[in-house]
Write a structure and sequence with these properties.
Helix content: under 10%
Number of strands: 2
Structural class: mainly beta
């Protein structure tokens, strides 16, 4: 597979992530996040809520 850098305005590739809400962890997809929406902004905070 050839990798390329995404540019602003590019369509994001489909992917799955683990999401936690109200103590429940589940797998969710980009497609499910976009249902009924025009667009979303995705950010990632690795270990954002841990001390130290």
């Amino acid at each position: 597979m050839t990798e390329r850098q995404l540019q602003p305005g590019d369509t994001a590739p489909e992917f799955l992530v683990l999401a936690a809400m109200d103590g429940e962890v589940s797998e969710t997809s980009l497609e499910s996040l976009l249902e009924g929406k025009r667009g979303v902004v995705l950010t990632t905070y690795v270990l954002d809520f841990t001390g130290g």
